[in-house]
Each structure stands twice: as C-alpha cells, then as structure tokens.
Design brief:
The protein folds into two domains: 3-99 and 288-323, 3-Layer(aba) Sandwich (Rossmann fold); 101-280, NAD(P)-binding Rossmann-like Domain (Rossmann fold). Helices cover 33% and strands 14% of the residues. The chain has eleven helices and twelve strands. Helix 1 (16-24) packs parallel to helix 11 (289-309).
C-alpha cells in the first residue's frame, strides 16, 4: 500500500479532506506534526508522496526520502523546497498554481487602502478618545496616481483590475514578460528603476527566488518618492527588513503595508512593529474558507494523480519526468 505523509498537519484545523480523498484511492494517509528538519527526516523517510505546507524540505530531507516520488506543496510558492535537489533525486514537485488569486489581490488592495488612508492610525486614535484627522495628513487622491506592480503574473493581474477601478495609472516590472504579451492589459511594462522612481505606490507580486531575494533594499528605497508607499503580499525576504525600517523611520518613503515579513512570526522587539506608518498582518492574504477548502482538495488530488497516473496535473519541475523515480 502506498503511503502519503503530511509533514506539518499542525498548521491546519482539519486534514479530513486529505484523509478521505487519499484513503478512497487505496493509499495510507499519515498526518505528522513535524517542527524541524530532523523531525521530517525521522518520520517521513518512507513516504511515497509527501505533502508539505511551510516546513523546509531541504537537501538533507530529500536525501533521506528513500521511496518518495513526489512532493506536493500547499499553495503557489515553492520557496520552501530545494527544487534542484529534488530534481536531482528524481522527485517531482507539484503545487496549486491557481490558489488564492482573488484573496491575495483583495488583501493587497485592503493594505493599500489602510496604509494610504491611515485607517489603522486613525482607528487607534479614536479608541484613545482623540477625535481628529490632523495626524493623518497628508492624504492624496488615487485617481491619476501611478501604481507600480512588481511581478505581473496571475495575482498581479488580478490586483491590476482592482487598481484600475480606483483610477490608478498602471506600470509594471516583470523581466519574464514582453510588452507584446501585455497588449490586452492597461499597463505599461517598464524597467525596475523607472518603476521605483515613478510610482506613488508599489505593490509586490513576484515569487521569492534567488533573483528576487532582497531585491528591495536601501538603494531601491532611496530611488522611491518620499510620498510613496510599499505594499508586499508576496514573500517577506523580497524586502530587506532593516532597509525598510530605515526608509520608514527616516522618511525616505511615506508608509508600507505588509502581509509578509523577513522572519515569521517576527521577533516581538522588531523595530518595524513600533512604527505608525506601517500596517502589518500575519501572512493571512491567501485565506478565505472557500480558498482553503479548494486547496485541501487539490493537494490531495495531486497526490492521488501521482499514485494512480504517475504524474501530477501541476508540475513545478517537469524536466524531472524522464528520470522520475518509479514505484
């Protein structure tokens, strides 16, 4: 009997959906509660398929997976998996690339509104008995402002539709796209430096890769307008946290809205958390009841596809196919 092991079941309120789908397919389902790399090595080495949410699947973990044919990652991002090591080992990586497009786009827009309209600042003042708009000044109208989008994939495009409704002029940076490919979108593709210098608000929607890790640091913040805002619902390490603190504290930019941080959860004494011009939420952008229900189903189905058909519907490393491990 095939065995499907979930590495970090503690991240979910229930894994009943996965259990039902996988056991119906005739496989054994095991929900582990791993916290460390050592836990995964010790408890998951006999998995035929591994399901993973947030725990790092490192080269060491992959080397210990004696039987594993596939690793199915909850969500879109696969930055927690050592893809080259998995590919070298003949293990395919699958994800759910159509997960939470609307949810993240909605959250990015809510952070944009909260940060630029000073919603949290004024809410906190009113609850302290201070009824005044004075601390929120200046606030500027959206119509006619330039909104820069870094990463114009599915979520970036969903976000752009919401932004257009508010009257923004849109520009985007995405080195993997051509201007011709965006002819049906009301957005101008520009170099990163132009986007940084021209944008009144910047929203990040690119994946975390070797190229994007730390791509927004001191040099980039100094190119931005002092009235500009940064929104990040992608991955925390894309933005250098120390540089962001300096930019916000010293007035290089006006404010920021984050759903992700370099370290999650952040240290309680992280200086970013002391700033009134930062709105931050706990990496919840992907969440709605409907999105998570669909995610559980599609991850379980991905595991079953590997067990019954040999391959998943959604490939991350299709180049592994010719030398993929056999059951």
């Amino acid at each position: 009997m095939f065995k499907v092991i979930m590495t970090d079941a503690q991240r979910w309120e229930s894994v009943d959906i996965e259990r039902e789908i996988i056991e119906k397919a005739g496989a054994q389902f095991v929900a582990e509660r791993c916290e460390t790399e050592e836990d995964v090595v010790a408890r998951c080495r006999d998995a035929d398929v591994l399901l993973s949410t947030g725990i790092p699947i490192t080269k060491r973990v992959i080397a210990a997976l004696d039987k594993c044919r596939a690793i199915v990652r909850y969500g879109i991002g696969v930055d927690t998996v050592d893809i080259p090591a998995a590919t070298e080992a003949g293990i395919c990586i699958a994800n759910v690339p159509d997960f939470c497009w609307d949810e993240v786009a909605d959250t990015a827009m809510s952070l944009l509104l909260a940060a630029t309209r000073k919603v949290v600042l004024l809410n906190n003042l009113v609850k302290k008995g201070i009824w005044t708009r004075q601390p929120a000044k200046p606030i500027y109208k959206f119509r006619g402002q330039t909104l820069g989008i870094i990463g114009f994939g599915n979520i970036g495009r969903a976000f752009s539709k919401r932004a257009l409704a508010l009257g923004f002029n849109l520009i985007a940076y995405d080195p993997y796209l051509s201007k011709e490919s965006l002819q049906t979108y009301a957005v101008e593709l520009v170099p990163l430096e132009q986007l940084l210098r021209s944008s009144d608000i910047i929203s990040i929607h690119c994946p975390l890769t070797q190229e994007t890790r730390g791509m927004i640091g001191e040099a980039e913040f100094k190119k931005m307008k002092p009235t500009a805002y940064l929104i990040n619902t992608a991955r925390g390490p894309i933005v250098n946290g120390q540089a962001l603190y300096k930019a916000l504290k010293e007035g290089w930019i006006a404010g920021a809205g984050l759903d992700v941080m370099e370290k999650e959860p952040p240290d309680p004494n992280d200086p970013l958390l002391t700033l009134d011009n930062l709105v931050v939420t706990p990496h919840y952008a992907s969440y709605t009841e409907e999105a998570y229900q669909e995610l559980h189903v599609k991850v379980a189905e991905g595991a079953v596809q590997v067990l019954t058909q040999g391959y998943p519907k959604y490939w991350v490393n299709p180049e592994v196919k010719p030398r993929m491990r056999k059951f």
